[in-house]
From TrEMBL, chain A:
Annotated protein name in UniProt: Sarcosine oxidase subunit delta
Domain of life: Bacteria
NCBIfam families (alphabetical): soxD (TIGR01374)
Species the sequence originates in: Mesorhizobium qingshengii
Pfam families: SoxD (PF04267)
Membrane-traversing stretches: none
GO biological process: tetrahydrofolate metabolic process
InterPro entries: SoxD, SoxD_sf
GO MF annotation terms: sarcosine oxidase activity
UniProtKB/TrEMBL annotation, chain B:
Source organism: Mesorhizobium qingshengii
Entries under InterPro entries matching the protein: SoxG, SoxG_het, TrmE/GcvT-like
MF-aspect GO terms: sarcosine oxidase activity
A Pfam family annotated for this UniProt entry: SoxG
GO biological process: sarcosine catabolic process
Name by which UniProt lists this protein: Sarcosine oxidase subunit gamma
TrEMBL record, chain C:
Name this polypeptide is given: Sarcosine oxidase subunit alpha
Entry annotated with the keyword Oxidoreductase: yes
SUPFAM superfamilies given in the database record: Aminomethyltransferase beta-barrel domain (SSF101790), FAD/NAD(P)-binding domain (SSF51905), Folate-binding domain (SSF103025)
Residue stretches making up the FAD/NAD(P)-binding domain: 172-450
One Gene Ontology MF term: sarcosine oxidase activity
Lineage: Bacteria, Pseudomonadati, Pseudomonadota, Alphaproteobacteria, Hyphomicrobiales
GCVT N-terminal domain residues: 613-884
Length: 103, 194, 997
């Protein structure tokens, strides 16, 4: 079970309290009704599904109930950082690797 | 609303019906812990932006906490921080917090949930161990001190957990989950002396 | 005397505490503190089981959790039968009853052993190659036969009467393994005051100190020191000491699963103790002190009972006071077996010879063995063992060939060296590194906040291990936040040390295909099988593993993996690191389902939700159905009524007089704030801005894709307050959906959502007499049609308690839904029921509710829709605000496929024979005479007998359905084709006049 830092609760909490909510930073058009088929397809269907760093939405469902954003590495399954909903995509990611070579 | 309601009110005899709280009076004991269903209380779910907190605190007579996982109590009324704009206000003194908020013009949402929740007290040296049978949070006094509160998980359901003393917790859950929660806590208490 | 092989002067058990036990019906005496294995050996019993594939007689290989052979069934009573218990782990208690497995009719004469003779047919990959043809036979013939013939123990066939508990725990430093290193690490951490958990899988702490007679720490015998140190730890408030506790899985972010065996070792556990306790521990730092496991020598017939690991024989002697034989041989490739030989010799056991594969080893143990008069042979191999049910001899030959010599023995102690237990480290996603000099994999790159110490880290010798562990424990505590350290490092006064050894097949493994030199005892994998796998083209060790099943048994190859890898590497002609190690996965040792399930059984399997009115319905004899987690009254049978009769009566009563229905499970959300209407406009297809307070509207919610997600009646209580209802099953996801949009797409709106599903009990009163029933109990609400028209809502009082009274109908009759605070639900229901009785009202359940709404063509989301139905498909275009610029789903709904011709549309169906009731889900075709597979143009979504209509009715999704009114379609069923006519969806009161009737 992962520990996920909730940016609203300001601490790490057990994964059981959270729910993933898909990729982040996919803006819904203010004029969605006027969107072309191609644009709607991109908005609604197309996801990056990267190997490595992904920006995704989580909800602290059984905690503060807030949606927030997280940066996670899909290879190591490690959360690199989390930030509040509405905040911009972080331009720089913190270094979190704790890989240590044994003596 | 009120106007429409009273316009052509038909007169009827004033009736009264019995209140039947879920699990009323249910209690169980294990060597290190006691679990009891608490009597009904008045409750509201209060939602408000930062700017309204002062006015609401004043109206409620208790300062709404702004720090995550904390609560504030005064005169039988407790405000639990559940989220950045969300508080659970519990009144055990028989006063109605919904009425107190009604006069507040500052932006907010107060919704009565007195009957939605059931409260269960878990007390004794094994209280934390009992809850940890199904709650994944760290309940040591460092991580979850007296006065701490949090919405979280117990087994397969959601609860609101608060700590009244080192060995006393209050577990709030929705009415229809109370049987499950009580049974779970009873089961957990069997092994809480370890 | 508890067994002829017990040596009174040896071991640590108190001879006074005798425990009787039985094995295969034969009664024996053991001593408290014994394992089943040590007690059997004390009685001279080596033969304890038959192997998995060849049914070869097997004995006890080890003295610990790595045991591949000695698997037995422990039976306490009819329901408490545990198969595949390792005799080396099971502690003895008075009255223990064990049985051997995988043999018939008896352990010493097993018919299945014919497999051993037929073994040329059972070689590696045998199952894959042999049972390929005919394909159909796999399922019907081969698989059941193979499963019956193979397998280990037999599953218990009764519900498990024991209970299991679970606990989430948090600590600063978690130490896994309670040998010298683990204890030292725990001491160092605990002395700083941080929270420490120390766990060990054995009943007693000490690890290899159990057998290392040469270890002395702080002036004491090593094992005695361990007991003292653990007692000291256990007395500290900040330390939890867990014995009999196996760390079975190491997961992300230092989350470790442990199972504590609480009562399997007790004679009469009683009902209060759980059988096992699952610990789910989150640690800031983990110290791995999991030790090392000795490897066997791979030579012909190395599986004969009586052949065991040297360290195990030494444990049986030094801890349990048991000699594993009277005349033992030793076969080794490293020093450690010498220590076993020396201890046994000193205890009076004859050591026939030590056979050492090494050419000219030197060292104190070798000198000591010689000084004790033990025959030591260098550069020689044991090429085969004699005997069948028990080893009787070992045949020795110079390792490069030459004359053979057969030495009679009754046990062979073997040691090919020690494999560091990197299982948990590997599970933590750490990467191991191969040390070419010592020929072992040790922790390389760490992936989590943990550290390995002692033998599992490849650190040789007690002194070095203790130093390393103590420092690591102190550092882990410091890293976890400890401020001070005030302990004293234990001092090692004397220790043993060895390393090296060999990997792979010894010369005695032979190349002859008839030789069985076992690599993996539990899965019966021989050196030849591994070589064959390579010859047949397997290159990756992962392929070799799966082809041969090496390391895939319940022991997870603890003794076999390295040998298998080395043989594969040798056959491939590649260095070991290039061939690679297979991945270690959880669980480290088997975990019971009971421990994993823990509390989640019976009433705690899943929450069962009941409404406030449930007790009344139960008392009335209602039959309930499960709707999600809810129990809902399905129908209320009177004496002599079946479901059909009850539902017919309930349906008729509602339309004739009135019915009461418990609608409390409907989801309810209070939407409050100045922007409430704006928010509703965005979340529902309907317009809301102009809905007046006091009025209601049927709302449809779409997902962004344009498909119907939920529906429900929404009442506007005030300009800034809506009372929204959702489907019962949809309540949680609708709330999540609304919160998602509110928080992330429309956060500028000043509005908040609160679930009030459980605040209000809801009593639907429906039927021509509904108003007459409610009115006498209501205060402050004008119940006239003018003041309270259909689709309106008022707040007032009923029976003296607050109510939100909705005038609405899901039956097509005049109807109300009375919301009252939940704790008053039952009392208000009873009051309404009493009123209803005056008018002949009935209580109705969910089945009648379904029929009544279908008679009116009202849809149920999730039954008549399936996530691919648009409002237009459902005939609900009228509920979509045409002038709205935005709502969730507005764009999705306009996608080309969703507006294309020929989409499936909801229509009514009437069977030509009114008595025939269609099956829900039945497929619909245009031409029943067409060839199979027929072209299906739709399916039945709802179908009932309608007593009110005097015929069956159905709703269906049919391609281009609304253009087929009056057409005849067909529903092919196994016993004939049913003719149906396409109709409108309303079967009863088409004009809707009854809403005000």
């Amino acid at each position: 079970m992962l520990l996920i830092r909730c940016p609203y609760c300001e601490e790490e909490r057990p994964e059981l309290e959270f729910r993933n909510a898909g990729e982040a930073h996919i803006a819904r058009s203010a004029n969605i009704a006027g969107e072309s088929d191609d644009d709607f397809e991109k908005f609604f269907f197309i996801r990056s599904n990267p190997k490595g760093i992904i920006h995704e939405r989580w909800r602290h469902m059984h905690g503060c109930a807030r949606f927030f954003n997280a940066v996670r590495d899909t290879v190591t399954d490690k959360f690199i950082m989390t930030y509040k909903a509405g905040e911009p995509k972080p331009s720089k990611l913190p270094e979190i690797s704790n890989e240590v070579v044994a003596k | 609303m009120a106007k429409a309601a009273t316009k052509k009110a038909t007169t009827v005899a004033t009736l009264s019906v019995e209140r039947r709280p879920a699990l009323a009076g249910r209690t169980t004991s294990a060597p290190a812990v006691k679990i009891e269903v608490l009597p009904p209380a008045e409750r509201i779910s209060l939602r408000a932006p930062e700017a309204s907190v002062a006015a609401l605190s004043k109206a409620l007579g208790v300062t709404l906490p702004k720090k995550p996982k904390t609560s504030a109590s005064k005169a039988g009324r407790t405000a639990l921080w559940l989220g950045p704009d969300e508080w659970l206000v519990i009144d055990e003194a028989g006063n109605d917090p919904l009425a107190d908020c009604a006069g507040v013009s500052a932006l907010h949402s107060a919704v009565g949930i007195s009957h939605r929740n059931v409260a269960i007290a878990v007390t004794g040296a094994g209280a934390a161990a009992t809850i940890n049978a199904g709650c994944p949070q760290d309940l040591s006094l460092d991580a979850f001190p007296v006065g701490a509160c949090s919405r979280t998980i117990l087994g397969k359901t959601e609860i609101v957990l608060s700590r009244n003393a080192a060995d006393a917790f209050r577990v709030e859950c929705w009415r229809s989950f109370s049987d499950y929660v009580f049974t779970f806590l009873s089961e957990g208490s069997r092994d809480a002396a370890v | 005397m508890s067994g002829a092989f017990r040596i009174p002067s040896a071991g640590r058990l108190s001879q006074a505490k005798t425990a009787r036990f039985s094995f295969d019906g034969q009664s024996y005496a053991g001593i408290e503190g014994d394992t089943l294995a040590s007690a059997l050996l004390a009685n001279g019993v080596h033969l304890v089981g038959r192997s998995f594939k060849y049914h070869r007689p097997r004995g006890i290989l080890s003295a610990g959790a790595e045991e591949p052979n000695a698997l037995v069934e422990i039976k306490r009573d009819a329901a408490r039968k545990t198969p595949n218990v390792r005799a080396t782990v099971q502690e003895l208690y008075d009255g223990l009853a064990a049985q051997s497995q995988n043999r018939w009719p008896s352990l010493s004469f097993d018919v299945g052993a014919v497999n051993d003779m037929a073994s040329p047919f059972f070689s590696a990959g045998f199952y894959y190659k042999t049972f390929m043809w005919p394909k159909a036979a796999w399922k019907s013939l081969y698989e059941p036969k193979i499963r019956a013939a193979a397998g280990l123990g037999v599953s218990p066939d009764q519900p498990d009467p024991d209970h299991y508990s679970s606990r989430y725990a948090h600590c600063d430093v978690l130490v896994l393994g309670g040998g010298a290193a683990g204890i030292a690490a725990a001491l160092a951490a605990a002395e700083t005051g941080v929270r420490v958990i120390l766990a060990d899988e054995q009943a007693e702490f000490g690890g290899s100190l159990r057998f290392e007679s040469g270890a002395r720490i702080d002036g004491q015998d090593g094992f005695a020191w361990a007991q003292g140190a653990v007692a000291k730890l256990a007395a500290m408030d900040n330390v939890r000491v867990l014995s009999r506790t196996t760390a079975f899985g190491y997961y992300a972010q230092n989350f470790v699963g442990l199972v504590e065996r609480v009562s399997d070792h007790l004679k009469a556990p009683g009902h209060e103790l759980p059988r096992e306790r699952l610990w789910q521990v989150r640690a800031k730092r983990v110290v791995l002190a999991s030790g090392a496991i000795e490897r066997h020598m791979v030579f012909a017939d190395n599986d004969r009972p009586g052949i065991m690991l040297a360290g195990a024989a030494r444990t049986y002697l030094n801890h349990y006071g048991v000699a594993v034989g009277k005349n033992v041989g030793v076969y080794t490739a490293n020093d450690s077996a010498y220590a076993a030989a020396i201890d046994l010799k000193k205890a009076g056991v004859n050591v026939a010879a030590i056979v050492d594969l090494r050419d000219n080893p030197t060292g104190p143990v070798i000198d000591e063995a010689r000084a004790l008069g033990i025959e030591v042979n260098f550069g020689r191999a044991v090429i085969r063992a004699g005997g069948k049910l028990r080893v009787s001899s070992m045949t020795v030959q110079p390792k490069n060939g030459g004359g053979e010599r057969t030495i009679p023995v009754d046990a062979i102690l073997m040691s090919a060296g020690w494999t560091p237990s990197v299982h948990l480290f590997s599970q933590s996603r750490g990467k191991v590194a191969f040390n070419d000099e010592t020929k072992r994999f040790v922790p390389g790159i760490y992936a989590q906040d943990c550290v390995s110490v002692g033998a599992c880290n490849g650190t040789d010798g007690l002194s070095a291990s203790l130093d390393e562990a103590y420092a690591a424990g102190a550092k882990a505590a410091k890293d976890a936040g400890a401020k001070t350290a005030r302990g004293m490092k234990p001092k090692v006064d004397a220790s043993e040390s060895w390393s090296r050894g060999m990997l792979g097949a010894a010369p005695g493994a032979g190349s002859d295909t008839t030789v069985k030199a076992f690599v993996d005892f539990q899965n019966d994998v021989t050196a030849k099988d591994i070589r064959q796998a390579v010859h047949e083209g397997m290159r990756s060790i992962e392929h070799v593993k799966r082809f041969t099943t090496n390391g895939m048994a319940t022991d997870q190859g603890k003794t076999s993996n390295m040998h298998g890898l080395a043989i594969a590497a040798e056959t491939l002609g590649k260095p070991i690191p290039e061939v690679g190690l297979t991945t270690f996965r959880a669980p480290y040792t088997p975990v019971t389902f009971g421990a994993i399930v823990s509390h989640a059984r019976g009433p705690l399997f899943d929450p069962t939700r009941r409404t406030a009115i449930h007790p009344w319905a139960e008392a009335q004899g209602a039959v309930f159905e499960d709707v999600g987690q809810w129990k809902r009254a399905w129908y209320f049978p009177k004496a002599g009524e079946d479901m059909h009769a009850a539902v017919d009566r309930e349906c008729v009563a509602v339309r004739k007089t009135a019915g009461l229905f418990d609608a409390s499970t409907l989801g309810k959300i209070e939407v409050v704030g100045p922007d409430a209407a704006k928010f509703m406009e965005l979340l529902y297809t309907n317009p809301w801005e102009k809905l007046e307070p006091g009025r209601c509207r049927y709302g449809i919610m779409l997902r962004e894709d344009g498909f119907i997600y939920d529906d429900g009646v929404v009442g506007r209580l005030a300009p800034d307050r809506f009372h929204v209802t959702t489907t019962t099953g949809g309540a949680p996801r609708v709330m999540n959906h609304m919160e998602d949009y509110l928080q992330t797409e429309f956060p500028h709106l000043n509005v908040w959502l609160t679930s009030i599903t459980e605040q209000w009990a809801v009593i639907a009163v429906q039927g021509p007499k509904s108003r007459d029933i409610i009115a006498p109990l209501v205060e402050g609400i004008d119940m006239s049609d003018e003041a309270l028209p259909h689709m309106s809502v008022r707040e007032g009082k009923i029976c003296g308690v607050p109510t939100r009274l909705f005038r609405m109908s899901f039956t097509g009759e005049r109807g109300f839904e009375v919301n009252v605070p939940a704790d008053y639900g039952q009392a208000v229901w009873e009051a309404l029921w009493a009123e209803g009785q005056k008018h002949g009202a009935a209580a109705y359940g969910t089945e009648a509710m379904h029929v009544l709404r279908a008679e009116k063509g009202y849809i149920i989301v999730g039954q008549d829709t399936d996530g691919t139905v648009t409002p237009n498909d459902a005939g609900l275009d009228w509920a979509v605000g045409k002038k709205k610029a935005d709502f969730v789903g507005i764009r999705g709904m306009a996608r080309p496929d969703l507006v294309a011709k020929g989409r499936k549309q909801l229509v009514g169906l009437k069977t030509k024979d009114p008595k025939v009731v269609l099956e829900e889900g039945a497929q619909i075709v245009e031409d029943p005479k067409q060839a199979i597979p027929m072209k299906m143009i739709g399916h039945v979504t709802s179908s009932y007998w309608s007593q009110n209509c005097g015929r069956s009715i159905a709703l269906a999704l049919v391609a281009g359905g609304r253009g087929r009114m009056g057409d005849t379609l067909y529903v092919p069923m196994p016993n004939g084709v049913i003719e149906v006519e396409v109709t409108g969806m309303v079967f009863f009161d088409e004009t809707g006049g009854r809403l005000n009737g």
